[in-house]
């Protein structure tokens, strides 16, 4: 009988799949040997099972759990419902491509942030640039900035996840200077969310800002940092956020302080 079968070593050589993986597939029930020698316990496979190994590898490449693969075979595991498997694989491949595309976009965003940080850190004077409309999830602060306040922003991601929001790249402090009072918030940027009317969400319209690198405490005296802007009428919107730099020193983080030009 063994004369027309492939040993586990031979099927490994033909398919390029390691012997230990083939044994694992057997354990999961997705690739049962056609014959097991009762004396030596050696596993043997038919030539047609080479195609089954190929189908299993396709599932792995597309992140299809091998337990799901069984739903595309008959009870014996020797017949593959190829059409259904390929359609499902195509759907999974499209999802994977979308995830890769989104990952590349995110990488490109961070590359732009690095370039922005370079420009800001090399500037002698504050720089002016345009900022698109932003949506921030905020928590009010009832007092001036302390070091613990800024560290508390670390808990935002879990809070956002619970409320169904997707995070953006910015986080920090948002202050509204209104004549003789200051409204203070901790914030994290959101790029999508379930509830546009959430009381914890503030939208900052697109506009030009004046920006400089600064330490966090400078936001408490923004009028000294941007005297010309604060000499004008109207509410002043000031933001402190971390800079994403080429080399990030966690013990010496750098920050951006920016003030929107009054309209």
Largest β sheet strand count, sense and barrel closure: 8 strands, antiparallel
Which stretches are low in confidence, meaning pLDDT under 50 for 5 or more residues running?
A: none
Trace the largest sheet across and list its strands. Answer: 4-9-11-10-6-7-5-8
Cα shape: elongated
Protein name: MerR family transcriptional regulator
Pfam families: MerR_1
Organism: Hungatella hathewayi
Keywords: DNA-binding, Repressor, Transcription, Transcription regulation
How are the secondary structure elements laid out?
Blueprint: E1 6-7, H1 8-15, H2 19-28, E2 35-36, E3 43-45, H3 49-61, H4 66-69, H5 82-122, E4 127-131, E5 134-141, H6 147-151, H7 156-163, E6 166-178, E7 181-192, E8 201-204, E9 207-213, H8 222-225, H9 227-230, E10 236-242, E11 255-260
Antiparallel strand pairs: 1-3, 2-3, 4-9, 5-7, 5-8, 6-7, 6-10, 9-11, 10-11
